Amino acid sequence: MPLHQVITVNHKTQILLWKITESYDELMAQVQLKDKSAKRLEGMKSEMHRRGFLSVRKLLAQIGYTDFDLHYDATGKPHLQNGTHISITHSHEFSAIIVSDQIVGIDLELCREKAAVIAHKFVHETESEFMDPADPEYIQKLTVLWGAKEVIFKIRNEIGISFKDHVRAEPFALRDKQTLAHLEMDGVHKTFRVYFETVENFVLVFAFEA
Length: 210
Fold this sequence. Notes:
It is built from eight helices and eleven strands. The protein is an alpha+beta fold. The chain has a five-stranded antiparallel sheet with strand order 7-11-10-9-8. The protein is globular. The mean pLDDT is about 95.
């Protein structure tokens, strides 16, 4: 399938989403991989992950990059060779990238009841005050919250980050499409501008350090 959606955040930040309908073989025939990436792909047991990996390379091609422009540091964080910041996510049949002149993170999460089952593992006590299980939007809000914490983890890559204890979001409503979140651990105090929107039955979350 062609590019699913492009979101222009500002004149130097863009999000691209791909809906993965192609087979692994179809995607493989359409991209070129450097040796390191080919070996990484071979090590993936899940075909869904392999297709997600290749669809990200299709997204890169939409904005003039190839796999040869993409590198990962020792922590697994992606970088583009020309210094443009990038963050990558894929979940089920979607993949997405965000590219920007600012440090940025992105996450894509499927809305599902499982979020309520594991909420005790990632919801800070201050967040419980505005996360009402009786709210019809509860699962979607939990998914936003989880995505926000994933994004902050991607941006900071701090060893030992606890989603529940170290990252907390300020109150938000889904209609706001944005909030602030804070990372506080081991003397690190950072605030992030978090944005979110729905894509079919997924929640797309991205953030910048404030």
